[in-house]
Design a protein that fits this description.
Helix content is 37%, strand content 15%. α10 packs across α11. The protein is globular and about 70 Å long. It has one domain: Alkaline Phosphatase, subunit A (3-Layer(aba) Sandwich). The protein has 426 residues and is an alpha/beta fold. β15 and β16 form a beta hairpin. This is DUF1501 domain-containing protein.
Amino acid sequence: MFGITDRRHFMKHVAGAAAVAGPGLTFLSGIHAQAAELKKKNKSLIILWMGGGPTTIDLWDMKPGSPNGGEHKPVSTAASGVQITEHLPKVAKQFKNLSIVRSLTTSEGDHARGTFLMNTGRVPNPLSEFPHIGSVLSYQYAQDVEAMKNMDLPSFISVGGGRTGPGFLGMKYASFVVQNPGQPPENVQPPQDVASRMERRKVLFDTLEGGFKTNVSADAAQAHKDVYGKALQLVTSSRKEVFQFNSAKDTADLQRYGNDGFGRGCLLARKLVEQGVACVEVSLGGWDMHNGIFNALATRALPNLDKGMASLTEDLAQSGRLKDTVIVWMGEFGRTPRINQNGGRDHFPRAWSVVVGGGTIKGGIAYGTTNSDGTEVKDNPVKIGDLYATLYAGLGLDPATQIRDNLGRPTAIAGDKVNAIKALVG
């Protein structure tokens, strides 16, 4: 259910929770204002996470004619002058609403460190673990107390398993993990004799909770209570049916989205943001292609990506919801322009691409360029903080909004000395 919930990780992520709310409350007025604005506009973020490190040189920044170009051909999109791989024809039609950042440059080529960087906007720091962007948005939503009284669904949901925790914000803002999109989440179906049995279970839980509190810190006890409170809230929610695909429309939609894990995840993401969920993360793994990359792309990865990503974007655009939903397609790093001896590509964070769209982010743009063989950023380099500033700006949030870390220090949600990409959100 809620991510990172084994005992070791639980204790790790609750240790600094009190510091977030403790010292100096004057900064909270700005957070409250941001939260109210975010909730009023009902903004959401959808992360399409490509686990393993996607080969963006073969998707979004192709180099035909170069020895690094590979076997596939570029094709035109709905955006004038913007080309992508021939194996994403449905996504190509959505590029009036999507844009490519082709000049992202990051520092982490290790899977775990790169994953943390891209999910938080910060390099790993064992002294102060920064939260996942979904946890930050969940925290922002929670500051609007009146709005949250009617929010019985988790505000941050990860489809396929969360990789990064809530950090110093604490377990209250961890992701709710859905392993099987389209089916009821595990352990949220109430017993048939719901009123009496749930009351008895709550009494038993409160008794056990009392013993737990005597053996751990006050912060850990509160975080433990928060996690189970969120679970109980979902169990009794009148809207939990949103997780299930039971209607004829759902069946028809799955034909377009793809009846695989990623397609089902994208359909669930659409349904969840329609219900006002702040952040939904959908995973498509298998991108660590050190060998046989071109066949793997053409036969497996790209057909699945094409259906799910295109249908999600199209449906949100047609319903008008895309103007309130930011989409970001990304992984932990790109892959080497040079093709290795096994017909694959290796880890490469120095120059790669992400795709963004929705909210106030302009579509139809390819921002930044790499050189002719894809080995270096040629112009308009974008760092991770700049990307995060762009995502927050697309959601209507000031990237300079501050939260407090586990040491009580205020820190900007997008980092210091960062700039949103004006060509996309200016």
